[in-house]
Amino acid sequence: MSIWIHEDSKVLIQGITGKQGTFHGTKMDEYNTNVVGGVTPGKGGQFVELPNKKVPVFNTVSEGLDETGADVSLIYVPARFAAAAIVEAADAFQEKGGGLIVCITEGIPILDMIKAVARVDQYPEVRLIGPNCPGIITPGDVGGCKAGIMPGFIHAKGRIGIVSKSGTLTYEAVAQTMSVGEGQSTCVGIGGDPVNGTGFIDCLDAFENDPQTVAVVMIGEIGGSAEEEAADWVAKNMTKPIVGFVAGSTAPPGKRMGHAGAIISGGKGTAAEKFKAFENAGIYVARDPSEIGNVLVRALKDAGLR
Amino acid sequence: MDIHEYQGKILFKQAGVKVQDGVHCKTVEDALNAYDYLDSKVVAVKSQIHAGGRGKGTLYDQETDNLVMEGGVKIAFSRDEVKEYAQNIIGRKLVTKQTGSSGKIVNNLYVEAGCSIAHEYYLALLVDREAKTILIMASTEGGMDIEEVAEKTPEAIHKIWTHPVDGLNEKDALDMADKLGLSGHSKQDLVSMLESLSRMFIEKDCSMIEINPLVKSDSGDMIALDAKVSFDDNASFRHPWMEEMRDHSEEEEVETRAHDHGLSYVKLDGNIGCLVNGAGLAMASMDVIKLYGGEPANFLDIGGGATKESITAAFGIILEDDNVEGILVNIFGGIIQCDMVARSVIEASNELGLQVPLVVRFSGTNHIEGKEVLDNCDLDVHTSSTLAEGAEKIVNLTRGEE
């Protein structure tokens, strides 16, 4: 098992004929991901050449789902159209009984996201990951399902779940698990925007219920209170060990650190508060991301898993 | 993006929110003309900078750093006082709780008609990340620092949320007016103000509107005496007018320049420059430098689409900072290929005549090729395979230790 996507999940790419869509579609196909088609309004009927196969382009997500039976729709649409793409995918999946939307796009206006997330939240069977995230990956025996922009080759199938607000810092966490001989069940990048779909708690809950996952690495960053809320949830509900890191201990207040959501405002959202919440919840804390591997080994040993 | 109070009040007026008459001024003469024009016995002379705490701030002379006047917002009772205050404000450095000790130069002034005040309130609209909609927050403790109120008397802060699609519910607005103890004409005024501000927030893609104080006048009118408005930069493509409202002198020039190169840069006070791909990893790199006893000089995310040109620009920006005594490059290659970064780093170092120690940590896509490129170049560059090792090395090198 794994969470939300499995090795054979069928992935549709919204924006497949664009530069990003084609580039990452190619990388996904190289990783053995089952890319079944794409959507670009007005380009229905065309085909996109991937290394291992040729996939059809549809005018709408609904049509794409009808023809391919896709269970994941991955969005590489430019920021100004991305929220509409999310809503279109949500409506289409709702008709078909549910599905997973993954939005990679960075820079979507926040008020657009408020409306798009409200729509997705009306549909219990539809999940949104992102935006402004690296996506989600479930490594398999050969390649795997990579719905996103992460480098596939750094991953291996295993028993550690990873959830993170950051992109490259997630890769760092992956490399840390590999350095101590552990692979990953599923890695989820939830993104660094203030308003997004899936949050930490959704991921932790899914990992808790996933038989393949035995422990979780959680990477947070300054801004908001999602980490504190997740820590509260962990204290009450989580039985599997968690290793946590929070980026931004040295970030000055009132300054946005790259991600739209990464800002300490009014003295709230500091790394110190988040680390403290982690510790209070019994989460194994790594103060240095290069220590995640060692801390993970300690957590696994304490749990009798190594 | 932030704007000045005087600009915020233009938007308030357009949206139907009550404000006092006022005039934007650049000179003392402007201020005197404004006083004549407003024909009000009492006027407020207000420094315009993109930071709060102006009223309790202090004005200093730019050159001598001598104290000129306490208070960046003054109430003037005569033409002479307007002249005195305007002279003390324009061109001076205003230091407030929010500006840091370096303060901000005041280039703009707002002269506003006075107003009889029966009570001061606080009102703000902002995006609630957890509730995933717009939060309207108000308090009867106006004129005070809201963080202080939140800490000391959290029960004095009242909150309502708009519906993500349908907007503000009138019942919630009426409820808010009740909680603030407003009745009759004042209650109606507040409800209509909340409706106007909610509409403006959405139409203009605001990220925050703060009014502190919002006042009830002696005649019961609800008037916005302050206006702090910020916009969502991600939405600027649908608001061409935003660019016209932008005051470049209020923004960090180097951050704007970095942004134009696709870089995200924030200057800090330390001595170790960082060049990293990804915002989270860039923050983590700063944190680890600190853990090893160093101080980061900056946050710098070169982004996923970095090129030779943008990396050269990034090096240039890091080296503009005279405090920088060493540079840590930390790349976890995903889309970005480490060998491309290696060649760019060499080129930039040669072009800029790099004089400080350089440590490069590569991982991910083409990290072996990247290391080979660096190992075979003439540049004095240290490599490492983990972030911790890289951070430790650069900290030691800046201390003159190998």
UniProtKB/TrEMBL annotation, chain A:
Role description: Succinyl-CoA synthetase functions in the citric acid cycle (TCA), coupling the hydrolysis of succinyl-CoA to the synthesis of either ATP or GTP and thus represents the only step of substrate-level phosphorylation in the TCA. The alpha subunit of the enzyme binds the substrates coenzyme A and phosphate, while succinate binding and nucleotide specificity is provided by the beta subunit.
Catalytic activity: GTP + succinate + CoA = succinyl-CoA + GDP + phosphate; succinate + ATP + CoA = succinyl-CoA + ADP + phosphate
GO BP term, example: tricarboxylic acid cycle
EC number(s) reported in the record: 6.2.1.5
Any Gene Ontology CC annotation: succinate-CoA ligase complex (ADP-forming)
Residues noted as binding substrate in the record, renumbered to the chain: Y171
Alphabetically ordered keywords of this record: Ligase, Nucleotide-binding, Tricarboxylic acid cycle
Pfam families per the UniProt record, alphabetical: CoA_binding, Ligase_CoA
Protein family according to the UniProt entry: Belongs to the succinate/malate CoA ligase alpha subunit family.
Natural source organism: Candidatus Thalassarchaea marina
Catalytic residues in the record: H259 (tele-phosphohistidine intermediate)
UniProt pathway: Carbohydrate metabolism; tricarboxylic acid cycle; succinate from succinyl-CoA (ligase route): step 1/1
Keyword Zinc listed: no
Molecular-function annotations in GO: nucleotide binding; succinate-CoA ligase (ADP-forming) activity; succinate-CoA ligase (GDP-forming) activity
InterPro entries recorded: Cit_synth/succinyl-CoA_lig_AS (IPR017440), Citrt_syn/SCS-alpha_CS (IPR033847), CoA-bd (IPR003781), CoA_lig_alpha (IPR005810), NAD(P)-bd_dom_sf (IPR036291), SUCC_ACL_C (IPR005811), Succinyl-CoA_synth-like (IPR016102)
Record protein name field: Succinate--CoA ligase [ADP-forming] subunit alpha
Residues reported in the UniProt entry to bind CoA: T17, G18, K19, Q20, K43, I104, T105, E106
NCBIfam families per the UniProt record, alphabetical: PRK05678.1 (NF004230), sucCoAalpha (TIGR01019)
Enzyme superclass (EC): ligase
Domain named CoA-binding: residues: 4-108
Subunit details: Heterotetramer of two alpha and two beta subunits.
UniProt lineage: Archaea, Methanobacteriati, Thermoplasmatota, Candidatus Poseidoniia, Candidatus Poseidoniia incertae sedis
